[in-house]
Amino acid sequence: MAILFRNLLVLSLTLQLFEGSSLFSKERTNDPFAHLAAIVKPSIVTISSVNRGGGPWGVGTGFVVDEEGVIATNFHVIGEHREFTVELADGTLCKPTEILAIDRSRDLALFRIDQSGLPTLPLGDSSKIEPGQAVLSVGNPLGYDLSVSQGVVAAIRELEFGDGRPMVQVAIPIEAGSSGSPVVDRNGEVLAILTIKSGGAMGFGVPANALRSLMEEIRPIPIKRWLTVGMLDEDEWRLPLGGNWRQRAGIIKASGMGDGFGGRMICLAQQTKISPPYDLEVEVRLEDESGAAGLVFGSDGEEKHYGFYPTNGSLRLTCFNGPKVFDWNIIETIPSPDYLPGTWNRLQIRFDQGGQIRCSINEQEVIEAVDFTLKKGWVGLCKFREPAAEFRNFRISPRLSSGSITPEIRERAYELSQTLVLEKSISPSEVQDLTKLDSSFYQALIDRAVEMEKASERLRQSAEKVRIARIIKELTDLLTSEKTESEEILLRAALLVSLMDNPDFQPKQYLDRVDRMANRIAQKIPKQISKRETLDILIEELFVQLGYHGSTLDFHHRSNSYLNEVIDDREGLPITLTLLFLELGKRIDLPITGLATPGHFLALYREPGQKLEDSVIIDAFSGRTISREYANTLTHSELSDKDFAPASETEIINRILRNLLRSADWDRDVSASLRYLDALVSINPKDRYHRTLRAMTQYGLGSFVEALVDINYLIDQDPQDPANAPLIEIKRRLMQSHEQIR
In the CATH scheme, what is the code of domain 2-223? Predict the structure, then answer.
C-alpha cells in the first residue's frame, strides 16, 4: 500500500507540474502529457544495427537535433563501425551518410541521414535540473516504437559507469530499445539521453550539456569510410544496383533488396570488360530456397547481363536485356539432382566466342545454350528477391578444357592424392621432380582435390544420415517396445529428439542432472506431509527457486523444444516444461500426468481413486495451479472429462516433433523438416498425414525414389480411397519422367 500511495503521489505531483506550464493551457488541450508527447514524437527515430557477422543486433532510439538530418543517440546503439539503418516516426527508411562526432566515454554519437526539413528537439540546460522535476521520454523499448513514458528526475549522481562524471538518474521505465531516447521537460527541451538501465523503473541518462559540447566538435566521417566491418573493397567490387553486400572471412553476403526490378542486385568485379572465351565459377549458398543468387557475365555495367543461378530448387539461365521484366529472356530453367539445397553449391560457366554458354552445378553440366545478345562485358555476382545469399571462391580464368589433360597426368595426380591421404606433405625433392611435368599437372591436382572434397562432403552427409537414422531407430524402439514402470521412457525419448539437432551433448548427463534436481527437491520435503503439500513444494522449487518459466518473447524458437536446452536455459514451451515437471514429480512419488489439451499442454495431479473435480491442474508455462475454467481459456476450448485422460509417452513425443516441424516450416529448414517427418513416420507408420507430407517434401526436393516409396505405401494401404487420386497422378508423372525409378 505504501508503494501504491507513493506512486499515486508522484503521478499527482507530475500532473500538477504539467498543468502549471503555460505551454499547456486548458484552451489548447485537457491533457498536457498527451500534447507534449505529440510534440516530441515526430522527432524520434528508430535505429536498427547489426552484429559483427552482419546479423541483427538490436534496436535503439535517436532524435533529431538539426533539421538537416542530424541525429543524436548513444554510441552503443550505432555500434563500432557496423552498419545501421534509421526509420523516421512516419515510417520513412533512411540511410546514414556520415558520422559527425562520437564520444565513447559518454556513450554519445551524432550522425547525419539522407533527409532534411525534419522537426527537431531543442536541448535544455541540464545544469538546472532539479530532483523531482517532471519529465517524459519517447523511445522504442523492447521494439515497441514511439512508446511514451513519464516520470521524474530522481537525482544527479556521479557513477563509475558514467566515467565519474554526472549522470541524470530518472524514474522512468527503461528496457532494451530505450537507449538513445530523449528525456524532455515540460517545455519539450531535452535534459538527458537515456543510456543505462538500473533495474525496475529506474535508469540513467547522459546530461544534455554533454551532447551540446559534442555538437561543437563536429568531425565528419563519410559512412563508407566509417563502415569498415564487412564492407566490400571498392577497388575490387562495385554495386550498380545497390543492395546490401558484405564481406567477412572470405565470404560475401548479399541481403535485402537491390534497386533493380524484383529486388535485383549485382556485384561486379572491378576490372575491364572481358570477351569470351572464359570460365567463371563461384560457390553459393542460399539462405532460403525461395531466393535466387548466382553468377553474372556479359554485363554492360548497368541493367544488361546474363545470369546463371539456382531458384526454387532449379537452375536457371537468363538474359537480362533491360530494367523491366519484359526485357528479360529466360533461356532455360531445369531441375537438377546435383543441386544441394541449404548448403554450398559450385556454379560454373563456360562462355565461348560463338555465343555458346555451358552451365554446370557441382561439376555436372545442366544447361547448354547459344545466345548472341550479349558478348563483351563485366562479370560478377547477382541476387534476387528478399532472402539472403552467401558467395565464396569467386574465380574467373582461361581454364584448360578437360581434354587437354592427358590420362598419364591425371594418373600421376591421382597417385599423389592417395599419398597425401597417408602423409602430411610431399618432400622438396618431389616438388622439384613434379615441376618437370607439363604445366597442366597443377590443374590435374586441383581437379583431384575437388573430387576428394566432393567425396568428403558426400561422406559427411552420409555419416549425418546414419547418425539421424540411428537416433530415430532408438527413439522408435524405446516408444514401441515393452515398457516397465521403472524405465525413463519419456525423458530419454525427449532427449533423443533433442539429439537429432544437438549432436554435441550427451543425454546421460541430463538424465543424471534431472535425478540430482529431484534429490535436492526431495531433501526440502518435510517428513509426514501430504502429497498435496509435496506438490506445492515442487511447484515452488521448480518455478520460483530454480526460475523455470515459459518463453514469452521467443515462443517459436526451436530451443524451446530441445529438452537439454530447456534444462540449461530454464525456459521452454508448455509441453517441455510440463515434461520436466512430470519427471521430477515421478522421482518424488507424485501422481502427476500430462494432458494433451488443445493448443496448450497441461499437467494434472490426481491421487488414485480421487474424483476429477478434486484433482489439481498445473500450468507449467506460468508455473502455477489453475482452475478448470482458466484451463478452458488457455486452450480456447470447453474441455470435457475425456481431455483429462493421461497423455502417453508417444503422444507427448509426437507433439514435440510436430512443434519442431512447425518451427522448421517457419524457418524454411527443409532438411530439418525431413528429420522430424522421418521420426513421426517411424514412430507411427500408419500416420497417413505425415507420410503424405514427407512424400510431397521429397518430391519437391527432387528425391523421386524416396517420394515414390511413400506414395506406393499410401496407395497400397487403401487402394480404393478416393484421396489417393493426386498420389496416383504424381506416381504416373514420376514413372513417365524418370524411367530409372521403375
Answer: 2.40.10.120
Cell of 345: 553449391
CA torsion, points 325, 327, 332, 333, in degrees to nearest 10? -10
Cα atoms in the Cβ-side hemisphere of radius 13 Å centred on 396: 21
CA 299, 300, 304 angle in degrees (round to 5)? 70
Radius of gyration of the chain (CA): 32
pLDDT digits (tens, 9 = 90+) for 309-354: 999 889 999 999 988 888 899 999 999 999 999 999 999 999 988 8
Please provide residue 98's backbone torsions phi and psi, each rounded to the nearest 5 degrees.
Answer: -160, 150
Checking if the pLDDT of 716 tops 70, the result is: yes
Q: Please state the pTM of the whole predicted model.
A: 0.49
Amino acid letter at 271? Q
Mean pLDDT, rounded, for 432-459: 75
Report whether 460 contacts 467 (CB < 8 A).
no
* Residue-wise pLDDT tens digits, 512-548: 889 989 999 999 999 889 999 999 999 999 988 887 8
Alpha-carbon distance of 404 to 449, in angstroms, equals 18
Check if CATH label 2.60.120.560 holds for domain 237-399: yes
The angle, 0 to 180 degrees and rounded to 10, between the axes of the packed helices 440-480 and 649-667 is 150
Residues in CB range of 567: below 8 A, 6 or more apart: 510, 513, 514, 580
Phi, psi of 253 (to 5 degrees): -115, 130
Average pLDDT over residues 270-294: 89
- The strands making up 389-397's β-sheet, listed across from edge to edge, are 244-248, 251-255, 389-397, 278-286, 345-351, 356-361, 364-370
Of the candidates 572, 439, 579, 568, the residue with the CA atom closest to the CA atom of residue 513: 568
CATH 3.10.620 fits 483-654, yes or no: yes
Question: Percentage of residues in the chain with pLDDT exceeding 90?
Answer: 43
Domain boundaries, the chain: 2-223, 237-399, 403-482, 483-654, 691-742
CA distance 394 to 389: 14
Asked whether the beta carbons of 170 and 49 are under 8 A apart, the reply is no
Residue at 373: amino acid letter:
T
**Max intra-chain CA distance, the chain:** 97
237-399 and 483-654 share one fold: no
The DSSP secondary-structure symbol of 377 reads B
